[in-house]
Amino acid sequence: MEEGIIKSFIAEWLTNGLSKLFERELPLPLDKDYVITVTGERRSGKTYLLYQTMKSGLASFNEILYVDFQDYRLKGIGANDLDKVVLC
């Protein structure tokens, strides 16, 4: 994958930030010692729950990057390309 595509994707994220949110009453239990998996029906609000979690955690995390792997620009991205995302 071309590095310029990855850089433009990251620049767009930094410029636009998070979408507007409808706050949910159920927060995700965050703990640095555990991996949290969010599952559910299609269109049930999983992504926006993650957005809400990122928004509430922006003060406590140095850097957050949300990558939507269904974005057409990332078609064909592979495991080796993820290093480029981190290094950009």
TrEMBL record:
InterPro entries: AAA_14, P-loop_NTPase. Residues 34-81 form the AAA domain. This is AAA domain-containing protein. The lineage of its organism: Archaea, Thermoproteota, Thermoprotei, Sulfolobales, Sulfolobaceae.
